[in-house]
Amino acid sequence: METVEHIRDEEVELSLLNDLTLAFVKGNVFLPLKRNDNELLGAVADSRGIFALRDLARKLKLKPHPLQADEKIILDAINRIYSQASRVNEVMGDIKGEDLSMIATEFESPKDLLELTEEAPMIRLLNALLMEAVKEKASDIHIEPYEMNIDVRFRVDGMLHKVLNPPKIIHDALVSRIKIIAGLDIAEKRLPQDGRINLLIGGKNIDIRVSIIPTALGERAVLRLLDRQTGVLSLEMLGFNKQTLVSFKRLLSRQNGIILVTGPTGSGKTTTLYASLLRLNKEDRNIITVEDPVEYQLSGIGQMHVNPKIGLTFAAGLRSILRQDPDIMMVGEIRDLETAEIAVHASLTGHLVLSTLHTNDASSAITRLIDMGIEHFLVSSSLIGVLAQRLIRVICPHCKEPYTPTKQELSYLEMDTPPAELYRGKGCDRCLGKGYLGRAGIYELLEITPAIRTMIAEKKDAQAIRDAAEKAGVQTLRHNAIEKVLEGATTIEEVLRITHKDSQTFLE
């Protein structure tokens, strides 16, 4: 047989797949490619594929022409092609063709609830939404009910965009289908519920966190997608500049103290903590974490999942792991005084503690701990470093183009010799016309030097600490973002969106 080294999407005649299920082509490891005169060309891995191709060719009254290909090449192509075939709008078009009023009437009867959510249209719609979200690399799916319609939105690279606006009539069936696969109570509609779904989508192992809350117009569902195959990134892959990376690694090499990672929800704090643990994970160290939830399983590290329903809070978990003789502890988040106090005392008794806090910048983390009720002298003696971070969208490499910046843009850069050209994304199919594809981190690392330690003990405010840190050479979030602009990685508009400095005036 002839052999093929790769299968491109445009080489596949999609009409040949209409009557072939994903399970059938995967089970036989074969993929029909195209008609060529009176022959049917298909990629096969072994005899199963040859027989399947022969049967399909017979139905189409063609001669089979098998091409030898590696099993992985065929399965990768199958996953890509079948993902493309499951467009949300196509599935929605099929559902609109059905009698929706009949579905709604049936739904009013509780006995039909499970039957309804097992109906092919609901399964197809949810499957198509999940596959589309994975294909677009969305981090979240939002399903929001309104008076007449439902809004279905994806969060891609930190920005929400609408993908579907189906009629309200299917809302209950769709949410109930989500509840069933997440193992939630489909009869409970008055209380918030949280669940998890583990799925294989397009060959990828996807972990989905489900949150459902009641609203005035129906239940609102948010599904957070986590691609487990992506794995944990190393510190070098997070987008640190050289100076910040060296300083942060120096902090991680300390034997005791607290290192805080701060930023709003969805700014990549957990990813940074996991990358830090990956660096610290050695055979001679005992590392234990308390998380909500455990997002990635790390080999060689003990990971505890909090469960407030049974009294296992961050504070309770942290208190317990102190009896496990740890060298390094990671607490998912410091939310209250009790957790903060245990973390501080653990750091003062020879442990390295990593955690997150919700603040806008590095210096605000100090005042946040003090506001919680931790004494100034305890903060100054336990805290060794604070890393503030955000995620900033990166210009799409496929449609990246240079342009001449305006005077207003150049004034924002605050440079004596401004660049003649900056970069932006024109918008293409790969980035869905947005001009951005993927994200990178911007960072502000505040090391607690003896001078800053004295300022904390003297009860100086966050602004005074921030000014002193900048004078000492600490690079702020904004300056790190501007550095990314000059490198051609992002745009000034994106920096303004993230750092909020005079953004409205500037954009006008």
Low-pLDDT ranges: 104-119, 502-508
- Determine the mean pLDDT: 85
| Number of E-type strands | 19
Helix content: 25-40%
Structural class per helix/strand content? alpha/beta
Strand arrangement, largest sheet?
A: 13-12-14-15-11-16-19
The Rg value, from CA coordinates, equals 27 Å
Outline: globular
Termini gap:
64 Å
Count, helices: 20
Q: In percent terms, what proportion of residues is strand?
A: 25-35%
Describe this structure in words.
The protein is α/β, with parallel strands linked by helices and 508 residues long. Helix content is 38%, strand content 26%. It has helices at residues 22-28, 47-59, 71-85, 88-96, 100-107, 113-117, 120-135, 171-182, 242-252, 269-280, 314-321, 337-348, 362-372, 376-382, 407-413, 450-457, 462-471, 477-486, 492-499, 503-507, and strands at residues 2-3, 30-36, 39-44, 63-68, 138-145, 150-156, 159-164, 193-201, 204-215, 218-227, 257-262, 287-291, 302-305, 328-331, 352-357, 383-395, 400-403, 422-425, 436-447. The strands form four sheets. It has a seven-stranded mixed β-sheet with strand order 13-12-14-15-11-16-19, with helices on both faces. Helix 4 packs antiparallel against helix 7 and helix 12 crosses helix 14.
